[in-house]
Each structure stands twice: as C-alpha cells, then as structure tokens.
Amino acid sequence: MKLTKTDYLIYRDCEKNAWLKVHKPDIYFDKPLSAFDQSIIETGNEVDTLARELFPNGVLVSDRNETEETIKLLKSKTPVIYQPVFETDLYKTICDILVWNKDFNVYDLYEVKASNSGEDKSAKDKLYSYDIAFQYLVLKELNIPLGKLFVIRFNNQYVRGAELDIDQLFLKEDFTEKVMNVVDGVSLEMKTAYDLLSSNKEPFGSCKCITRGRSSHCTTFSYSNPQVPDYSVHDISRIGMSKSKLTELIDSNILLIEDVPEDFPLSEKQRNQVLATQLDKIFIKKEEIKSFLNTMVMPLSFLDYETFAAGVPRFVGFSPFNQITFQFSLHVLSDKNKEPEHSEFIFTKNENGDEEFISALIEKLPKSGSIIVWNKSFEMGRNKDLAKRNPEYKIALEDINSRMIDLMDIFSNQYFVHPKFKGKTSIKYILPILAPELSYKVLDIQEGASASDTWNKIVSDVYSKEEKLEKIQHLKTYCKLDTYAMYAIWKHLNELD
Ligand code: SF4
Fold first, then answer.
1. ipTM of predicted complex
2. Is the pLDDT of residue 204 over 90?
3. Which of 220, 245, 278 is the last residue of a domain?
4. Which residues lie with the beta carbon below 6 Å from any ligand 1 atom?
5. Strands in 310-463 per DSSP E
C-alpha cells in the first residue's frame, strides 16, 4: 500500500474514515455520491483543465498509475508538465502543474483549487498548506529540484467581460512560506498515517462523531456507530453547536430522544422538539399562525427559483460561483375558495438568460400582493444578484423583495411543531406530513442539486434532443411541486380551527 495525498488529507480529518476507505471500500463507497458532491468534482476537473491555459503547451501525463512517463518528462526538463505522478516507497502523489524555472534550474509547483479567494480563507489556506506539503515531501525524497510552491484559485473580484480572461480569473498565490511552516509536522504525520492505514487492524469502537451533531457525520457513521438509531439525540436542532450537551447525553448512554431527562438543559426550541417526540404530540400556536397569515396580502404568489452556480463564469457580468437563475415556478391565488393558477419560466440556452428571466417574472407576477417563498434569503439574494447585473430592473426587483414573506418562518419559529418533522424546517420534511397526498419521492428530480445538475447537462448538450425535452419536463414538474407544496401547506395552516 502507498499513502496517497487524498487519503492523507482524509486521515487528517478522520483516521477511522480514512482506514475504512482503504480497507473497507464497500462500506466507504456504499452510498452513491450526491448530485451536489458530484458537481463539486466536475467543477474541480473543469477548473484544473482551464488553469493549464495559464501555462500553455505543457505535456499531460496520461497514465495516473505509472511514474515512468513523468520520469522521462523530468529528465528532458520538459518546461510544463500537467498531472505528473510521483511515488516513493511509502507515498504517492499527483501534482497539478510543474513549471520549469530556468533562472534557478528548479520546478515551481502549482496546486489548482476550484475555490474563491474570499470565503473561509484562513481554514482553506491551512488545508492547502498541508496538501502542498505532502507533495513537497514526496518530491523532495525523490530529489526533484523544487522552487516556489503556489496555489491557483479564483479571484472573487473578477467579473467576466465578453471573453473569459483567465489571467484575471485566477490568482497565483505564493504558499512557499506557509508550506515551510508546517512541513516538519506533516512529515511526522504522514508516517503515522501510513502506519495506521497500512495496518489491517481497524480503529476500535465508536468514532469521534458520536459527540457531534448529525450534519457533521460522514457516510460511514452508522457502520461505526450501529447502536445509534436513525433519529437520535444527534438530530436535536443545533445540538452540534453545544458539544458539551451532546457529550453529556452520550456519556450518560442516552441516544434516544425519548430518553432525554426532563431537567436536561436545552434551549426552548430544542426542548419543544424533544417534547413533541417524547409525548408524540403536535404543538400548534394557532394565534401566532393566524397573525402571521394575516400579514399576507391577496393575491398570494407562491414563488420558487432554480439556479446553477457556475465556478467558471459563463456570461458577461458573472463572477466565479455566481448563481445562474434559470427557472421559476409561480402559483397565484386570487380567490381563497379556488385553486391557484400556475405559470412558469425556464431558460435552456447556454446564454445569459437574466433579461428573459426578469421580464417573465415581472410579466407573470401580480403587481400587488404578497410573494410567498420558502427560505426567503435565497430568492431575495438571487434578486439582488440580478439587480446588480441588470440595474435597469433594480426597482422592480427591490419591489418583489419587499413583498416577500417566508412561509418557513412558521416552522423555524416553532409555531407548528410535529414529531415527524424531526426538528427540520425543510419543505421536504414538512410537506409529507401536512399534505401527504403530494410527494417528491415519485418525481424524477427530487431536490435542488439534481435540478441544477440536470439544467447544466441540458445546456451542455449532454442529452439527445428527446432526452432534453424529457429533462426539461422533469425540471418543470419538480419546480411546480415546490410552489404547489407551499400553497398546500399554506392551505393546511389556513384551515386550522
Ligand atoms: S462519522 Fe465522523 S468520526 Fe465517524 S468516521 Fe465519519 S468523519 Fe470519522
């Protein structure tokens, strides 16, 4: 076995998970990648390939399993090498780009990251330093003459013009000093990781996520913690933020929410969730719900957007990872005693559809009345993005935002607590309980990340003409259910006696 950079980085995150990946891949890879995770990988590949244009005319090492090709290219001092492969007795790594620096007779190393220069910068810088240190140590052991060590990532200030300017899109940041600061520690850690991962002895017992909230758990959690039920104290809302509380429960051998003691310190919202489960009881604050619904002005427009976040900006005015707003569904209720009327918009060309989207939105939305959404920060945020790129529509989009009401507030404010919501406020949890006749489970597209991915494939010409029409229909059906679901939930709340 050779320790790869990927496995080393997983090990740094969690020893047990890394061991399972190496020794029990059937368990590690048991769950298929989500559409979201898949899209991260695809964006990474796209960005890797694009960044090579910063150093044109390089040679791509095609065989990722062999080092022979790389050795030949190094011997001939090939000026630019993409994806060179290196192996020592214990370790294996693939670099993104090596560039021969003839002034110093060394190779400069470039690690490409499909991420922005702004968000979580210090955490990412730390991670990237460990990542490059691994490569540095492997190449050093092989006596490859190394110069500077760089990270290439997106410049979040970049705004695309008619042509993509990759010199402006990417930042090249010198990480040499950051890497040198951690390299001794990485050297020791690599050996420890190698020893653990090359051993057949499985790390014993529960893993450390036993004291972390559900959202921190990886896909192998239930394998390592078979005693933990699917709905457990780990699912208490925001319990992961208060590690000491969860640790206390686990130390007291309390896994079921039903067993949480009455006097155990919890926030009001956590206590309500626990009580609903323990008593198997629904809590409804009818007066608060009534007051909330009374703030809504007829006609009611139930509105939902679908978007795609393109890492590499595709159109004029877009920055890295800006959302392309490609679809909306709208149900308008003008008479409370009738069914709402449906309309929709979808843009399926590989062009900037901002103008068409905004025009359709303005045309189809009533000029007055409340606009009901679920998790309004998302739709409001997209309208702000659209207004920034299309200032001529700023006033209209601001008006839309000023009329928005978030139906999710009823559930996040706990005016309605149901044991089967399991502390969640996503519409995917609320709908099956309040309107069981409606279901996402029967749809071909069941969540937003799949909708994004489907749209991207449509505009990237991955599908045949027939498939494309079918996929467009799936997108319409999915988005339509989102807005009809909001109407159905609103109706249910409105009919509470
Ligand atoms: S659930 Fe957490 S601690 Fe357990 S294996 Fe996964 S990442 Fe590691």
1. 0.95
2. no
3. 278
4. 14, 16-17, 207-209, 217-218, 220-221, 224
5. 323-333, 341-346, 371-373, 404-406, 416-417
